[in-house]
Each structure stands twice: as structure tokens, then as C-alpha cells.
Amino acid sequence: MASSAPYQFCLSASDDATVLFALDFALDGETDFPFEEYEFAYSVGGCGSSVLLTVGNGLTVDAPTMTFRIEKGVLPVGDYPHGLRATSTVTGDIVQIFDGTLTINEGNFP
Predict the structure, then answer these.
(1) Cis omega before residue 110 (within 30°)?
(2) Which of 1, 51, 64, 98 has fewest C-beta within 10 Å?
(3) pLDDT digits over 4-25, tens only?
């Protein structure tokens, strides 16, 4: 998949467990990202219907960390395009932060 975002992030997970990962955000390696000035949306496509996480609905922010959570069983085994974007509450600008592939593998648990 050709990346349209400044970062490409590919992740593998099991269908037998919660998909849970975290990313740290900083502007210059020291300054925290101004989370309060943005609304975030994380999307997983190609699964029959889109999975959309927002802050308070699968995304949590504990600056400088953003944690992503998709409950076990939501996504069947397969490869899915996914991405994160931020919308500035100040300017309305929408910025794609990453895209890539989320791979859900068979976890071999009943």
C-alpha cells in the first residue's frame, strides 16, 4: 500500500486478544504535543464496516502518550488499511499522521 501520510505504521496482532498499542507524541523530542488543540480519529477499513476510534471511544490520551484499543473479536483474521488523523480545533486543518496495514493473525486459541 502506498503511504499518503508522513509516517507508515504496520502492526500485527492476534484475533484472540485485544488490539492494544500506544504511541508517544512530542513536538521536538521534549515538548509535549498540544492534545487539547486537536480531535483525533483512528480508522480501520476493509472489514465489512469501518472501525472508527475517537478519544473516549477506544482512544485514550495521557500526554505524551495516546493509547489505541480494539476489543477482541471486532476484527476477523485479515489485513486491513488503518490510519490516524488529527483535526485542529483552532484552525480546522486536518492532518494525516500515519497510515499502514493492521494484520490480524490466527491466535490458535479456542
Answers:
(1) no
(2) 1
(3) 788 899 999 999 999 999 988 8
